[in-house]
Amino acid sequence: MTEIAKGLAGVKFTESKLTFINGEEGILLHLGIPIQEWAENSTFEELSLALLEGKLPTATELAQFDAHLKENRAIPQQLQQVIQDMPRGINPMQALRTAVSYLGLLDPQSEDITPEAQRAITIRMIAQFSTIIAAISRTQEGHDAVAPRMDLTHAGNFLYMLTGTEPTSEQSRLFDIALVLHVDHGMNASTFTAIATSSTLSDMYSCITSAIGALKGPLHGGANEAVMDMLDEVGTPDKAEAYISKKLDNKEKIMGVGHRVYKNFDPRSRVLRDYAEHVASKEGKSNYYQVLETIEKTVVDRLGDKGIYPNVDFYSGTVYSDLGIKKEFFTPIFALARISGWCASVIEYSKENSLLRPSSVYTGEKDAHYVKLQDRK
């Protein structure tokens, strides 16, 4: 009998110094530092650079990196036109996938897979993802794209390009924390897909386009949007307990609850829960947070002893919603954060590259023979 690891669960194919996860104890570390400390003290820019370099940057290194990001925020006019001409009503992840692939066509360095080129391309993609996603959102609504500003943080600039209004420093910081929480998460499906593409010695744009395709799937990147659909279905806090209890009694899935890795509270969820409450009280345009509180209590009471708790998607949607972001763009925002982790993982794996070529267990016939077409029944 050959043992098969369904979904590659527990299979280790490489080493990494970037991210450590202990699902049993609810621990997430980047470069050995708890995610809670990154969220409280750092920024998206700093964590991105730290993962690329494998260490905490100096103030000078971070300032240089930030300057390079700002210098590369604008996207080529040809790509802007492609985004403008995209059909209305398309899936934003389809649009992002196409835009990134086209961006590669315009980059004369795209075929260069040397470490220096990979890093340069990474900086450009981190910088331009926000511009691309904001442009897709605005053009899909029939508005003109908003040009990036050089005087705003990465998070603040995205919110500005998305809405056309400069966000408050508090709004920028809240969104920055949400990005930090999503930058990297070990060998998830999209990161593994990027590495698998990279292992063939393909270019960075192909790796990231592959990752976007994997993230597009609802089992990976679409959970926070599904949580918002659930909240709309629940309606008000007083209906939440009965709604969830009925689903649990019918053994139906609760969106944003449970995780493939975590058998304890997702540490990102713990961080985001506090900020979600703050956003709800400060920006609150809905009663989403109160509904989530009731759902969490009901789920933990019923399923906590089975290791099923809310994950990061449970609260991220309400933060985005209360910041004025449409739910169909929650997954592109996931990509906006994860681009740094994708690229850092590809670069790390490329240092000791090995072509990924797993095998499967054959379950078909072994003594069949070809039957001519006219003789088949």
TrEMBL record:
InterPro entries: 2-MeCitrate/Citrate_synth_II (IPR011278), Citrate_synth-like_lrg_a-sub (IPR016142), Citrate_synth-like_sm_a-sub (IPR016143), Citrate_synthase (IPR002020), Citrate_synthase_AS (IPR019810), Citrate_synthase_bac-typ (IPR024176), Citrate_synthase_sf (IPR036969). Keywords: Transferase, Tricarboxylic acid cycle. It catalyses: oxaloacetate + acetyl-CoA + H2O = citrate + CoA + H(+). Pathway: Carbohydrate metabolism; tricarboxylic acid cycle. GO terms for biological process: carbohydrate metabolic process; tricarboxylic acid cycle. GO terms for molecular function: citrate synthase activity. SUPFAM superfamilies: Citrate synthase. The keyword Transcription does not apply. GO terms for cellular component: cytosol. CDD domains: citrate_synt_like_1. The active site is at residues 259, 313. Belongs to the citrate synthase family. PANTHER family: CITRATE SYNTHASE (PTHR11739), CITRATE SYNTHASE, PEROXISOMAL (PTHR11739:SF4). NCBIfam families: cit_synth_II. This is Citrate synthase. It comes from Deinococcus marmoris.
